[in-house]
Design a protein that fits this description.
Blueprint (H helix, E strand, L loop, with lengths): L41 H15 L40 H39 L3 H4 L1 H6 L5 H6 L9 H12 L7 H9 L9 H6 L5 H21 L5 E4 L2 E4 L1 H9 E4 L2 E4 H17 L4 H13 L3 H14 L4 H10 L4 H14 L4 H10 L3 H14 L4 H9 L4 H14 L4 H10 L2 H14 L4 H13 L4 H16 L6 H13 L3 H11 L9 H15 L3 H14 L4 H14 L2 H14 L4 H13 L3 H14 L4 H14 L2 H14 L3 H13 L3 H14 L4 H13 L3 H14 L4 H13 L3 H14 L4 H13 L3 H14 L4 H10 L6 H11 L4 H13 L3 H14 L4 H14 L2 H14 L5 H7 L9 H11 L2
Antiparallel strand pairs: 1-2, 3-4
Helix pairs in contact: 11-12, 12-13, 12-14, 13-14, 14-15, 15-16, 16-17, 17-18, 18-19, 19-20, 20-21, 21-22, 22-23, 23-25, 24-25, 25-27, 26-27, 27-28, 28-29, 29-30, 30-31, 30-32, 32-33, 32-34, 33-34, 34-35, 34-36, 35-36, 36-37, 36-38, 37-38, 38-39, 38-40, 39-40, 40-41, 42-43, 42-44, 43-44, 44-45, 44-46, ...
Length: 929
Amino acid sequence: MSGRRDFLSMPAPENYVAGLGRGATGFTTRSDLGPAREGPSEEQMKEMLAKRAASLGQAAPSAYGVTEKKEDDEEEDRFQDPDNEVGLFSSGMNYDKDDDEADRIYQEVDEKMDKRRRARREAREQQERDDYEKNNPKIQLQFADLKRALGSVSEEEWAALPEVGDMTGRAKRAREARMANSRSYAVPDSVIQAAAKSGELDTSISSNDAESGTMTNFASIGAAQLSALTVRLDSAASNPGTQTATSGTATSVDPKGYITALDRKQANGEEVPVEDINRARVLLESAVKTNIHNGPGYVALARLEEVAGKIHTAKKVIQRGCEMCPKSIVVWEEAIRLNRESIHNAKIIAANGIKLNPKAIKLWQAAIDLEQTPAARKKVTRQALDHNPQSVELWKTLINDTDDIENVKLLFAKATETVPLSEELWISYARVSDADAAQQVLNRARKAIPTSWAIWVHACRLQEELGKNEMCDKIMERAVKALIKVNAMIKREEWLEQAEICEEEGDKHTAASIVRATVGWGLDKDEERRDIWLGDAKSISSRGRYETARAILAHAVSIFPHSTTVWHAYGDLEKHHGTTESLLAVLDQAVIACPTSESLWLLYIREKWQSGDHEGARDVLRRSFDKLPGNENLYTRAVDLEVAAGNYDQARHFLQTARESAATDRIFMKSAVLERQLENFESAIDICNQALQNWPGSWKLHAIKGQIYEQLSKLKEAQEAFSVGTRAAPKSPTLFILLSRIQEKQGAIVKARSTLDRGRQQNPKNPELLCEAVRLERRQNNIPAAQKIMATALQECPTSGLIWAERIMHLEARTQRKPRALEAIKKMEKDARLFIVVARIFWSERRLDKASTWFTKAIVLDPDYGDGWVWFYKFLEQHGTEEKKEEVLSKAALAEPKHGEIWQAVAKHPKAAKKSVEELVKMAARQAE
């Protein structure tokens, strides 16, 4: 047997690395807990490769650096010298100031570009975050409205909330309780034996008992038990707190009512558990024992006993409190209260308390209240004033118990002499005196209390009551100067509150005087005052104090006479809360102060005309032409007035003059509309053609021309007019809609679709065109196509109330309308169209109260939206009263709506030229569907 080892058992050669011939080396992966086996060093690899090459008769490879060193290699130290560079950097360039400047410029450019991109990037990222949060709201945002609603929860409702029970492990605890109850134990034999003998009757007598003489008398024991049971039953029958019914020898007691009566006591109409009373009694007794001179502790303990029904104990507790706390006023007051059923005892207690506390006004008041006759009351009051002459309350009590007015004046004189710093006594003294004496009283009061603003206000009100309104302003001016002198001027807001109080009590001139004298107190003399005064007037008028608001605005226009904003606010107040004469007077002053204000002239002309003074309105119109010659709006208003009066020739004259002196496309349009109303269609078309030569891009002129042809049943000419308009004014969606409807009337449905598509290309994401495309398909009963267009419309215009309303009312099943409406309102909280949709849904479900509420919300949210008034009136025609319908019509007339699909279709029809707002609402309600 050879001594050579097996190949697999032989040790590896020195410096052997598995797979080295294939180029494998050691490596480390992230899954390894430690480094992999260290591979061979560079020297070892060079040596192995050299041996391998020698065995093969080849030259050693240079892959691992086994190369011969060139003789012409230069030293490496020379590469460390920047002035001795060779090769790529052999030119010897140095970093100088120009390079520094260039680097700085490049850096600034990079920073600027980064800043510009950063703004766009941050805006895009913010938009993406907003969209994500909108589509994936957080829980706290979903419940934000509920959190806001918690602000209206009262303290009583909070207190009534039930306590949260411990639900943790409830099933486990219940299971353990059941197992505990079902446990069984081995009963000892002694218990079983005792139970067996319990029913036996032992008739034998123990000899021990006989010898001791203690014989058991069973008859006496039975009689005693019967007597005790009888007493207990009689007590239960006579106790109203237990429900007992006795019939013959059978007695039944309601255990529930009996236990409830024992466990609870009545306190202020509420039941208090007995255990709570006992717990509170322990605490209060401990507090009283700890501090025997604590008066409120005795009061609390006495009231607790009173709640528990122990009045006698309560009296004893409070009596002890009076002994231990003789200087505590609350203890004596409580003692008087607890003994009020016995007036004699209460008087004795009051006398004792007053003897120990002669300066206690409350005890004197309690003693006065115990007296039954006015004479006795006055006697006690005078005794109280002897000890407390400076008490205003006691003087008031004495004066109130006095009937004779002369005696009252004498008492007031004595009281003001004794307590000269009481505003209330001085003002009351002035009120009971005649005019001359009242002025003298107030003069003395001002000298006694120079810092009192209330005395000045009462003096002003006194002058108003005497009819001397002109004196109010003088008194308030003096008041302001005097109060400033003694540094007693109150804030401007407090003065306005006093003005509101005076107006509420009927002293309107005093309120106005206060405003004029103090409304500018503490404000800087700049433009900011105007906004502050306008805000004050708005808030005060919202509370119904119109005279105060009127005084503020009158003062504002005196300071800012050229501000049209203030004049408009003043006029609006007079229009809604004043008279026609006052409104016209304010507007006349406004146009004089602001002669170049077009809005004020137009408002003045309209109000003058509506008041019935047509000649006055024409005169104002002539004045406005002098101040604003060639004004387009004034000419159109003049035309409206003459058309309303039926003076068509004069209206034509105004329009002719306007076309010559102030030619605009609107003037020509007005002229064409007038001729159309008068059925002079040829003249109307000629005017449109003349205007289109100068203003070919006016879409309204194209629309009027096409509508005139349509009214004449010349559909081909109307189509041509609308088609020319779409090319001349491609950004007008209305022309595309009118053209598509004409084509639909002619039966060219494909052309109508093409027209709407062309309009959508010219006006992308336009809700009117998208809605018209949906309606076109719906009128053709092509519901799938309508649904497809609606989906596109909602993607392009997700916040359009028009699109959502069309979908909900016409493309949704009746059961799905309400969820879709809720989804739409979440996207658009302030859209009157959606409110009307919700109201119509409730209307269809016969929930009339909710429908009325949502209609009201719609007209309050957007009173200019005419369709809201139309649908509300249509609803009231079926389910409303005559008073409610008249109210809605009057409010619509005040709102003067201008927008709405149904509204504009009716209001702009030639037949509705002379109709009032009320008549237009009725006409539109008949066409609404």
